[in-house]
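check these tokens.
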Amino acid sequence: MEVRRGGYTMVELLAVLCIVGLACAMGVPRLDGMLARMRVRSAANLVAGDLALVRMLAVREGHTAVLVLEPSADCQVRFRGRRAGFRYRVHSQPHPAGPSRVVDLRLAGGRVCMEMNGLDSLAVNSRGLPRGFNNRTVWVHERTYADSLFLSVAGRVRRSR
């Protein structure tokens, strides 16, 4: 009587590895899209927080505060009349050489870009109201995923997905 040893044959192991490899190959594009969507949402949250910071800075110091977008050549503009970049600064207007907050949206990786309608800066006066009489819109996008923020005339920040 011959005793059979337990174990798997090489053919069985290769079949299982092929099935696992196919399952992983089908899941990687979904994971990549989910990561891009999370990077866009994270960057939009950061921009929304900095828009609130610009308002608070302007009211606290009694001067105009500005969020200045630094245009970048590798960020594509989706519509004419907008500026796009991945880095911006927040500072007080009478002292632009003073302390400022510089934000890079690509520190988390990816190709996240930010667009603004109109000029490449957003100024808030000492009462916490944006300068100008139109609503300002900020778009954050990476590839096909985008998120937008609206800064109303009253200075409120609203998100739209």
Notes: The first strand starts at residue 65 and ends at 70.
